[in-house]
Structure formats: structure tokens, C-alpha cells
Design brief:
Chain lengths: 138, 80
């Protein structure tokens, strides 16, 4: 379940979507805008997405989570647009029979997202705005 | 032939474009087109990494591009 949207995630509804009768847990990850980056203050943030490709990459990562860790359902909400400190940018919910595989899959999901899903942050502070340099892929 | 190229993130600011058509040779590969874009935009050439996606996938640098392909250039991603 992939959601790329401006609106805040309905975390309760998404959690209910991934939970099955065979689920023993749902592990959730919430990524929020913090007030600093590399020693500089951050007041606002813009998030841009290449939606078509992001959707494909997120679908691939979801499938890999199920294949590698045997989790049941995976849902991701990634927002784009204008944000302020404290806003929720990302919500991941993963259901599984037991906690170990769900925690591992959630870690895998967010790590892969930061490597290969085409989304970019532009941070704003008193000095102006600047694009966040992503981690190198290779 | 002409290849339609899209730009995202900082590359959109650098080029001032969301997309453009680039005239290039038939049978151009990803690495050749990347070199051409770097030559056209020195500020992109100065970046430590230039990512290229073809049809929403990170393909091999030797992949041959056709006019039907969806090609995108962008810097390392920073979502999440």
C-alpha cells in the first residue's frame, strides 16, 4: 500500500489496513521534521517527489520486505509539499506474526527509502534555503 | 535523435527547467548522455554524483536509450 500525498497520514486507518487476524504486531515508523540539520537551524522544509518513479521504488521495497522477512502487509505514506518543524513526513506500518521480522523489515524499508526513492528535501532557515545532499548510492 | 530529459531536486534549480529535449546521437548510452548533460551544465558537472533513471529504474551506465524512454537526471535522494 503506497500513498504519496500532501495530507498528513491517518495513522490509525493505515494501521488497521495492514493488520490481519494472523498479525501478532504492527511496527510503525514516523519520520518528522526536526529543527536542525548539520548544526544549522531549520524552520521549514519543502519536499519534492518524482512520483512515478517513487511509487515503483516503494512498491519494490515493500515486496522485498515481504520476501526477505516474511512480514504480512506493508504500508507507506510519504508526503510532499511545504512543512514546518514537527510535521510528519513519513509513516510506515508493517504487520507480522512476530516482532523480530517486523522490526527488521521496518529498518530495511526506511534505509532503502533513503538510498533509492526519488524524493528531495529543501531546508529553509534564516540564511535562505538549501537542498539536502543525499547519501551516495554507490 | 531527440531524447526528452526530466530534471528533479537541485538539478531543476540549476537548469531552470523541469524537462527539455536533448539532441544526441542514435544509440546513445546512459553514460554518454550523462556526459553530454554534464558538459551543458557545469554546475551539474561539479556535483559529486549525478543519478540517471530510465523508465523509473536505476539502469546500467551502458544501457542504450531510445526516444521512447523516460529519462530523468537528479542528485542523490534525501527523502525519509
Amino acid at each position: 500500500m503506497i500513498f504519496i500525498q500532501r495530507e498528513e497520514a491517518d495513522r490509525k486507518a493505515i494501521t488497521e489496513m495492514v493488520q490481519t487476524t494472523a498479525s501478532g504486531c504492527v511496527v510503525q515508523f514516523v519520520g518528522v521534521v526536526r529543527d536542525n540539520s548539520e548544526g544549522k537551524e531549520v524552520s521549514n522544509m519543502t519536499v519534492e517527489v518524482y512520483e512515478e518513479m517513487a511509487r515503483k521504488q516503494l512498491e519494490d521495497i515493500s515486496a522485498e520486505c515481504k520476501e526477505k522477512y516474511g512480514v504480512q502487509e506493508v504500508a507507506i505514506v510519504h508526503r510532499y509539499g511545504e512543512f514546518k518543524v514537527g510535521d510528519e513526513l513519513v509513516f510506515i506500518a508493517i504487520s507480522a506474526g512476530h516482532r523480530n521480522e517486523a522490526f527488521k523489515a521496518c529498518q530495511y524499508f526506511i534505509d532503502e527509502l533513503k538510498q533509492r526513492v526519488p524524493i528531495w528535501k529543501k531546508e529553509v532557515n534564516l540564511d535562505g534555503s538549501y537542498w539536502v545532499e543525499g547519501e551516495k548510492r554507490e | 535523435m531527440k531524447i526528452n530529459v526530466r530534471y528533479f531536486g537541485q538539478f531543476r534549480d540549476i537548469t531552470g527547467l523541469t524537462e527539455e529535449e536533448i539532441e544526441t546521437k542514435d544509440g546513445v548510452t546512459v553514460i554518454e548522455l550523462r556526459d553530454q548533460v554534464r558538459e551543458k551544465y557545469p554546475r551539474i558537472a561539479a556535483k559529486r554524483e549525478v543519478l540517471v533513471a530510465v523508465n523509473s529504474t536505476f539502469t546500467s551506465l551502458e544501457t542504450v536509450i531510445t526516444p521512447e524512454d523516460k529519462v530523468a537526471f537528479f542528485p542523490p535522494v534525501s527523502g525519509g
